[in-house]
Specification:
CATH topology of the largest domain: Topoisomerase I, Chain A, domain 4
InterPro entries: Ribosome_recyc_fac, Ribosome_recyc_fac_dom, RRF_sf
Number of domains: 2
Distance between the termini: 51 Å
Largest sheet: 4 strands, antiparallel
Protein name: Ribosome-recycling factor
Radius of gyration: 22 Å
Keywords: Coiled coil, Cytoplasm, Protein biosynthesis
GO molecular function: ribosomal large subunit binding
Number of strands: 6
Low-confidence stretches: none
Mean pLDDT: 87
CATH superfamily of the largest domain: Ribosome-recycling factor
Structural class: alpha+beta
CATH class of the largest domain: Mainly Alpha
Shape: elongated
Number of helices: 4
Organism: Gulbenkiania indica
Strand content: 15-25%
Length: about 180
């Protein structure tokens, strides 16, 4: 029973960490990366689909993304979808390919993005702590049900705390890497 509680808590913490890392990829730096367009949806014959399902998204160089729709008729729709997204990008069609240059980030914008990233990190830490609290409550309930002893509960709480520390350290590591990335010109 204790192992189930610990395993469940670790799985939830891992999912929280992955969600945080996914959120970090959405915050753009000055460099181009194809993941930035993952959440752009295109109107494809009446249904909204992710851009990756109607076009090939590649890096042309460090500051430019290339989007090549599989159907020529989709060129204008894909370009409009990128332009209308809230990413602040200005795509330009050149023949069969759409070039999406990444604009330079101003110092002020970099500072704002760091604040956003730190807020995301704090939300992730809170999620990890909430998982720890839930796991500890489950352990207390096991004591009430006389399923485990108090010594077992204390050891299990220590293990849950070690897991919490480990995942918060991972969040801090990812945060500092993203801050470094954002400050790099």
């Amino acid at each position: 029973m204790i192992n189930d509680v610990k395993k469940s808590a670790e799985q939830k913490m891992q999912k929280s960490l992955e969600a945080f890392k996914t959120d970090l990829t959405k915050v753009r730096t000055g460099r181009a990366h194809t993941g930035i367009l993952d959440h752009v949806v295109v109107d494809y014959y009446g249904s909204d689909v992710p851009i990756s399902q109607v076009a090939n998204v590649t890096l042309l160089d460090a500051r430019t993304i290339g989007v090549q729709p599989w159907e020529k008729s989709m060129l204008a729709k894909v370009e409009k979808a990128i332009r209308d997204s809230d990413l602040g990008l200005n795509p330009a069609a050149m023949g069969e390919i759409i070039r999406v240059p990444m604009p330079m980030l101003t110092e002020e914008r970099r500072r704002d993005l760091i604040k956003v990233v730190r807020g995301e990190a704090e939300n992730a830490r809170v999620a990890i702590r909430n998982i720890r609290r839930d796991a500890n409550n489950e352990l207390k309930n096991l004591i009430k049900d006389k399923a485990i002893t108090e010594d077992e509960e204390r050891r299990a709480q220590d293990d849950v705390q070690k897991l919490t520390d480990k995942y918060i350290a991972e969040i801090d590591k990812a945060l500092s890497a993203k801050e470094t990335d954002l400050l790099a010109v």
